[in-house]
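Hi Q.,

Before the meeting this afternoon, I wanted you to have the zinc ion prediction in hand. No need to reply - just skim if you have a minute. The sequence and ligand are here:
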Amino acid sequence: MPNLVQALQGFREGSTYYSVGDGFYYCLNRTKGSRKFLKCFRHGRYKCMSRASFEVNSRELSVTVNHNHAPEPWVESLLKERHAMKGHAARDFDFLQTSSYGRFTYN
Ligand SMILES: [Zn+2]
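Predicted structure with the ligand bound:
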């Protein structure tokens, strides 16, 4: 029984992450018919080239390119925590932004 794709509210306003609960998260790359094509949300920070897609009806994820990093199961709880706090602790999450400039804003 495969895990079904779940949509999570992303770090940025209006963004959505997709996950099957294995510690990897994906952003929507494009939609073609009833199939959504995803790319890893770490494509910016880790230059991860992972790709996956799923049919919106079955929600069974098929990964076509594997990740170049370890799963990060804690991201999901950070997302939930962040939305619970309504962005007040946004600074703490800057390291999760998909910036490849290495510009961190810890005080
Ligand atoms: Zn990845």
